[in-house]
Amino acid sequence: MQQFGVALRVLLVIGVGLWLAIRLRYQLLESDALARQCLQAGAELACQVRSGLPQLFLQDRLGWACLLAGLGGFFGAYRSLAWLGLFLGCIGLVLYSFDLAAVGGLLSLLTLFRPLPARP
């Protein structure tokens, strides 16, 4: 029964991560209307976020963060890092950092579905 609860939370984190990444990608990064608006109006908050967002996936920064969180969760048995790795992995798969994000996300999933050690 405990694995069912973990599976539901995993699906929720994956869903929220994918939803956020898809919104960032298609409403900020690839939006032609926002690009025209940024050229005309100047530096609004959305334009500043749009210009800074590519820094996440240039040089695979997002992928490395996901991989480090996945490795920390897998080898250090830190479940909180595994949750972070799963969330970052979902975002990285959509935002062009899929190589390292896939490995980090997989390590995170393996950590989350690994049985917890028995407590005395």
Structural features, described:
The protein is mainly alpha-helical and 120 residues long. It has seven helices and no strands. Helix 5 runs antiparallel to helix 6, helix 5 runs parallel beside helix 7 (98-113) and helix 6 packs antiparallel against helix 7. The two termini are 20 Å apart. The model has no long low-confidence stretch (mean pLDDT 88).
Brief synopsis:
82% of the residues lie in helices and 0% in strands. It has helices at residues 2-29, 32-41, 45-52, 54-57, 61-76, 79-94, 98-113.
List the helices and strands and how they pair.
Elements (H helix, E strand, L loop, with lengths): L1 H28 L2 H10 L3 H8 L1 H4 L3 H16 L2 H16 L3 H16 L7
Helix pairs in contact: 1-6, 5-6, 5-7, 6-7
Strand content: under 5%
Biggest pleated-sheet summary: none
Rg (CA only): 17 Å
> Helical percent range?
over 70%
* Sequence stretches where pLDDT stays below 50 over 5 or more residues: none
Cα shape = elongated
* Helix/sheet category: mainly alpha
- Distance between the ends: 20 Å
What letter string, H or E per element, gives the SSE order?
HHHHHHH
Q: Can you count the helices?
A: 7
Overall residue-averaged pLDDT value? 88
Number of strands: 0
User: Which quaternary structure do these chains form?
Assistant: single chain
Name the features.
single chain, 120 residues, mainly alpha, 7 helices
